[in-house]
User: Fold these one by one.
Assistant:
Number 1:
Amino acid sequence: MNVLRIIGIAIVTIGIQWLLIQDLPLTEFGNPYIYLWAFFIIPFRTSKATTYIIAFVIGSILDSLEQSGGSHTIACLLTVAAKPSVENFLYGFKEENSTDTLSSLTLAKFLPVASIIVLVHHGVLFSVENSGFSQFSALGLRILVSTLSTVGLLTIIHLLLSKRYAA
């Protein structure tokens, strides 16, 4: 999968988010970010430099839309930095020439990886947006609600788009 296709998928998910999800009543407590799907379709063999460029572009697009001052870019970069460690810790399945992605995993293997990656992303994003850990309970609630809603939506996307579940 080439870089332009991944960025294209990210732009589509950002568009869907802005057209359908952004104004849901849930956003008071947290916001699901389905653009993280773009990170799940990056093949394992993709170079770190390419992965960081993709994360920077996606984060910058969101920062410009939300005028969030770089918090999405920081969260995206730290998420892709943590992603290989999470994958290796849980499954140790990264082969150098593999074209597999997280989206090709079974649901039982997808959920733990997705949950941890989304939790890392949301923890960084909302902590940076909050300028630290002041109002810890509100921050914790926002991270929890956003993580649960994002993982739920990503699971639906995984079930709909994964070749493993196609009829």
Number 2:
Amino acid sequence: MAPKKPYVELTDLEKLEKQWRKLSGLHSREEWSSAIVRAATAAEIAANFAIRREFEARSKLNANFINNLLRWANGLAGKLDRLLVPLSEGSHKKHKKMKRLKALADKVNLKRNTIVHQGEFCNEGEAKEHIECARKFITTLVGLYDQQFLLKERKR
């Protein structure tokens, strides 16, 4: 059996899938709030993937500079507001989709922030609702750049 690749060496999509698997375990153990936080983390990793793809298609900027931009954008909301939405302005269709995705991301991010910054606990219904928002955000966003992407359904 080959040794596991260190997390830092995983691609964005591998990291995203790993977060989604972890979310599934948390959900099955009824750790609703933690599962929501993992879903939001997966959504942010999906945004990283989309931003990297945008820059690959449009520029010759090196990975180190792009990583600094991702840190500067800080969080899911920042990545959408500061990078993805402005990058999509040249394409009316993509810009419209990014604005719709931003509404989903805002919902996921707001719940994540109430858990992380205010210590809120969530119930199963809230977890299902917010995880579904994150799933929809992730599959739609990543699907814009990789039509073959499939987010494995979590166990129920």
